[in-house]
Write a structure and sequence with these properties.
It is a single chain. The protein is an alpha+beta fold and about 425 residues long. The chain has helices spanning about 65-75, 75-85, 110-120, 125-145, 150-160, 175-180, 180-190, 210-220, 270-285, 290-300, 330-345, 350-365, 370-380, 390-395, 400-410, and strands spanning about 1-5, 10-20, 25-30, 35-40, 50-55, 55-60, 90-95, 100-105, 200-205, 230, 245-250, 255-265, 305-315, 315-325, 415-420.
Length: about 425
């Protein structure tokens, strides 16, 4: 099946092809682009922590999705040598809800695509290689356990969540990684890495026919038993576990803070649209043109810009506001007062119009950035929507929708504060 989607505003289009194997392919052509990028994403990440086998649920060791990613991508120096031979730059990452393998190259995209697809669809699992990859991952875990930014985020997630996998590190722990055996690793791979559970995005000056031909070489219809299924633990209470976490770290001279607001997920598509609304609202709360930011910066309560991050993952959504401050408690008080004021009085209509234009401009910019656009195409696919509707949604949003979302998304009773201070 082949469909083409167009945007009159952007004057662009992309193609969606459902391959005979079940793999979905998105081709976003750009004749003017000097590079070609491909992203192969699997709808499987660290939050998919339970395997259902013939009706029985079994908890998987933490870090198994991340270990598979390392196993495939760092499987061999051979893959990296092959990518180098085509002039491609390749990498991979594992998130809570997906695993993505990608490359970018100037030409020879068909050769690079073959290397990518072969690596992901035909990995060589062995005990020797497993032990080697475990060593790499454990070293990675040890390296960032004292990283201030990692501590800030992990402590916040542990406050917000009782049991959801988001409270655990994507890479797992040294113990959980050592507990992963070859049998459970290969079982998780075989269940998750099915064509119908994956999506391929190719962008740039490329030909549809040649892409399909390469996919034909590596993707066939699978026959994995239907009884096997990967699940996310859905027993998360609609409360936060703790409201405050404070710790100390080396290598920082100013305290770091992050306030997080926990929200429960609706259906995937509406929650995805809500992340855009949340980004829009954050701009009206703490953007550099707002009185709140001016107050914080002028009075020395923050050292630089405040950063809003939206963590949208399997069965969870979190709005984070983070920054650096000599007086983090004072900064948080001012931010909370600004949120409370907007919730009681509604957002300012003139500020709404300014931020709406800024948000539309930002989204248009996103469509010009290959890596951002690829991520949006992947998330849109996994949430069952056309990526162009994201832009339409913000163009049509009104003040009432923003005020309604503000009441739910930034609820102080569903919030927690994480502070990392310089080591005394």
């Amino acid at each position: 099946m082949r469909n083409e989607y167009q945007s009159k505003l952007l004057q662009e289009s992309y193609i969606r092809v459902t391959h005979s194997s079940g793999l979905t392919i998105y081709i976003y052509p750009s004749v003017e682009s000097s590079s070609i990028s491909a992203y192969l994403a699997v709808n499987y990440g660290a939050a998919d922590s339970v395997i259902k086998d013939k009706g029985k649920k079994k908890k998987l060791p933490e870090g198994i999705a991340h270990l598979i990613e390392h196993f495939i991508f760092e499987d061999s120096a051979e893959n990296k040598t092959l990518f180098s031979s085509t002039g491609a730059i390749a990498n991979a990452y594992c998130a809570y809800d997906r695993t993505v393998y990608y490359f970018s190259c100037g030409d020879k995209y068909k050769e690079s695509l073959r290397i990518l697809l072969k690596s992901v669809t035909n990995p060589i699992f062995s005990t020797k290689l497993l032990n080697s990859v475990k060593g790499v991952v454990i070293q990675e875990i040890k390296l960032y356990q004292n990283n201030p930014s990692w501590l800030l985020d992990m402590n916040l997630n542990k406050c917000l969540y009782h049991s959801h996998a988001i409270k655990s590190d994507i890479a797992g722990t040294e113990k959980s990684v050592n507990d992963i055996g070859l049998e459970i690793l290969t079982k998780a791979y075989s269940v998750a890495y099915k064509p119908e559970n994956m999506v391929l995005v190719v962008m740039g000056n490329c030909e549809e026919e040649s892409i399909i031909q390469v996919v034909d070489e590596y993707f066939k219809k699978t026959s994995i038993e239907a009884e096997l299924e990967l699940l996310c633990d859905e027993k998360e209470p609609e409360t936060v576990k703790e409201h405050l976490a404070v710790c100390e770290a080396n290598n920082i001279y100013t305290a770091m803070f992050a306030i997080g607001f926990k929200d429960m997920l609706l259906d995937g598509s509406q929650s995805f649209y809500n992340t855009l609304l949340d980004e829009f609202i954050a701009g009206m709360l703490i953007g550099e043109i707002t009185p709140t930011f001016q107050d914080l910066y002028t009075n020395g309560y923050i050292n630089s810009s405040l950063i809003h991050e939206n963590l949208f993952s399997r069965n969870c959504i979190v709005n984070k506001i983070r920054g650096e401050s000599e007086n983090p408690n004072n900064a948080i008080d001012i931010i909370n007062k600004a949120i409370d004021d907007k919730k009681r009085n509604g957002v300012d209509s003139s500020l709404f119009e300014i931020c709406k234009k800024e948000m539309i401009g930002r989204l248009i910019y996103y469509f010009d950035d290959m890596s951002i656009l690829a991520n949006y195409l992947i998330l849109s696919h996994f949430n069952g929507i056309n990526v162009y509707t994201l832009l339409d949604y913000i163009r049509n949003v009104n003040v009432d929708q923003v005020n309604s979302r503000l009441q739910k998304a930034f609820n102080p009773e569903m919030s927690a504060l994480s502070i990392v201070r310089p080591m005394q």
